[in-house]
Write a structure and sequence with these properties.
Elements (H helix, E strand, L loop, with lengths): L7 H23 L7 E2 L12 E2 L4
Antiparallel strand pairs: 1-2
């Protein structure tokens, strides 16, 4: 008899839920960002740097 953790009926719903959480977090992080905003190259150099900054043209 298979253990509960080796059955597909356990892994498929768990993977769907975890995938939904990941997609939700991605979409949530993109709220409030304009299309013209670019990734900030100095983001990792300081705590105060934002992830996105306005495109300066």
């Amino acid at each position: 008899m298979k253990k509960w953790m080796t059955k597909k009926s356990v892994y498929i719903p768990v993977s769907i839920v975890l995938g939904g959480i990941g997609v939700g977090a991605f979409i949530g992080s993109m709220l409030g960002v304009d299309i013209e905003d670019k990734l900030n190259k100095e983001y990792y150099k300081s705590k105060e740097e934002p992830l996105f900054k306005k495109d300066e043209k």
